């Protein structure tokens, strides 16, 4: 490189503010030694620093002079190229030399890109912080959401034959009833195995807490003293273990549940109760029932967290029948049935075969034998299909299966939110990069003049974008680790950052590259596209021409934020409505004492002792309560004498005691409550208003109804109360006097709750010294029924805040840029008498207009989306979307926007006009 080219290179770095102190010193020395070059460069320096009236003329002359000082590429190529015949040895050496030079040039170019990018980052600290901050927050959110989606999509894939494992699902569609369920008769599994050659194995599982042992129990070793409460009990067939091929830690899979009165426990429970031992053959008691000891047949590996099975104890179904004929009847459905299909089985064809064969071959004949006149009508409404085990977690949101699982709609929601947040962060980057284009236009123009190619400029700007992306990803990973506990609470998960997995860091690196390129590709092509003639003539000195694009992107950001704000407002109002709605019973200050079935016949005496406490108003013994986690018993009811003439009415059949209605504050609207002094009341029932309506009973008192037994008289009608989620309809209900002793509910006074709890605990200790008391408040259990709604509210709130923060970061930077671009205008206005308020309003008004446009776009989208969401709730239990929700969200967005830009607006308004005008 000759002296002249070296001087031009140093001058270019100086004009781009990239020259170091040493390079500036070297330039001054070379210009002193070369006066001709100094004269030319002084013209450039003067033009670069000052914008005079004759800038355009001087620019043209200067541009011609610059072109004269740069040798055309063709000329340089001709001077430096020497044709060497390929058959001479010198040709190969020449090729090697060219390759080495190319590698050195590429390496040097990349180093130069990185060096310039880092200098730009240091020079524009505020803009860099906003770009990196917005990127980091959005990427952290996307990383957490990606881990959530990965976890949801990985459910039930660990079973060796997962592709061939299915469960049987039934659909019932008649009139306005559309239901799906998984409960089948005990005989179903055996019938499928015998009748259909496509079925290799079939097995049952039953977790209905209505049956002793399923659900939860008080558990202890046979040689132990203290009971411990445990959840996760279910009855299962030996064949189900074989279908799932559950690994065994101790014992043999082939014989784990083959013997009566045996159970399989998980490894974690074995370690808890038998630390350091092989527990196979050991005996345990459930609920202090020593007449039914359970021997441990095997110890299985814990079900993975990504399994829809969440059981720690599997009780054998070998030799079990819950009543005479229960294992043979088609009239009672309590079991989930799983099948292992043979390889190559046609699932669609099998769906039709089992629908036709099971319903027409077994269900309908059984109904006809019972004299049901509606058998044909019901047969037309029933269908059966197979659901693959890998689909159960995400595609069972409309299936009644009593399990807790995910929802594919939540996966799509989380994915969409992640996408929006990432797009908003990229928008900020594009906005800021294009907004600052005027500041870098002269740099681009001069670089092109001195020989830079557009590809090199694109590489330079993409390098800057990649550096921002890599720094953001590093910060994002730290943020994600810090936010993980909160996110786990939000999503009801136990996720962790997968540091130990080989794919994690490569995926992060690849994502950083992709995001960096996506965010930087438009600014790179936009900035590198400036024409040197226009730049050097000053045509781009007034600022970026992409204001329409920037405004559109700001509108998009605030539209997304407003949609999230409106959604949050609607969800929280729906939740407030549910939790404060009159549900037909008194749930406040009702204490539910659980595990009372271990008192061995002393439950009634325990209740009587509680009633002696001055703080206890009343108490009732019943496992059937109007909150989640308690028993349910579906039955079919008929009016007396109509069993064979009319279709039955499905409803709940609850065991309660004589103090149930009084304790829970329900209202008798006809007839009377149970009277324990009247022996006939043991054979009487109280129904709710919905049951009376469904049975067509206008005056139900004294009328008789039946469910598989002798008709019983109705002595009272209770006002309807909600005992299931308010999302569904209110179901018919029948209550009768019966024994269900696992829960004692106590209505207490509010004067001294802490002291009352201490007294109740003392009474418990006197009855069960070796078992800790367990209790919860009914209003808390009621709120838990809507945990998914509360979780969705927290999700929308969190993401709305994040979207607003990211949008405001971009708005803040754009406001600073606009204030900088209009500094001369502001100075002139101040000189002419404009007040600070006028100038602040002037600068803020443009942004407020954009927010108004965002409100107009977001409102109909939000209205449509929230109306769809509210359809999940019963019409009588959902709010209506009001105008004030949109107004509130709009006002919040406008206030946020004004607060964001006001700092920069006021700062610009307070600036001394002499300073800005002098600079101009």
Distance between the termini: 38 Å
**Main sheet record:** 6 strands, mixed, barrel
> Proportion of β residues?
5-15%
Please mark out the parts with pLDDT under 50 across 5 or more consecutive residues, or reply none. Answer: 50-63, 65-92, 99-105, 540-545
Mean pLDDT: 82
Q: C-alpha Rg, in Å?
A: 38 Å
Share of helix among residues? 40-55%
What can you tell me about this protein's structure?
The chain is of the alpha+beta class. 52% of the residues lie in helices and 14% in strands. It is built from 28 helices and 23 strands. The strands form three sheets. It has a six-stranded mixed beta barrel. A six-stranded mixed beta barrel has the order 15-16-21-18-20-19. A four-stranded antiparallel beta sheet has the order 14-22-13-23. Helix 24 runs parallel beside helix 27. The longest helix has 38 residues, at 454-491. The protein is elongated, with a radius of gyration of 38 Å.
Summary?
The chain is α+β, with helices and mostly antiparallel strands.
Quick tags:
920 residues; alpha+beta; 6-stranded mixed β-barrel; 6-stranded mixed barrel; elongated
Record the SSE blueprint.
Layout: H1 3-15, H2 21-33, H3 35-49, H4 55-69, H5 73-80, H6 89-123, H7 125-153, E1 165-174, E2 177-181, H8 188-195, E3 199-206, E4 215-221, E5 228-236, H9 238-244, E6 248-250, E7 262-266, H10 267-273, E8 283-286, E9 294-300, E10 313-316, E11 336-341, H11 347-369, H12 375-381, E12 382-388, H13 408-435, H14 437-449, H15 454-491, H16 504-528, H17 532-536, H18 547-580, E13 590-594, H19 603-611, E14 616-621, E15 634-639, E16 649-656, H20 660-663, E17 668-671, E18 685-688, H21 689-694, E19 704-706, E20 712-718, E21 733-737, E22 743-748, H22 753-767, E23 774-777, H23 778-784, H24 787-821, H25 823-831, H26 836-870, H27 883-910, H28 913-919
Helix pairs in contact: 1-2, 1-3, 3-4, 6-15, 7-13, 7-15, 7-24, 11-12, 13-16, 13-18, 13-24, 15-16, 18-24, 18-26, 18-27, 24-27, 25-28, 26-27
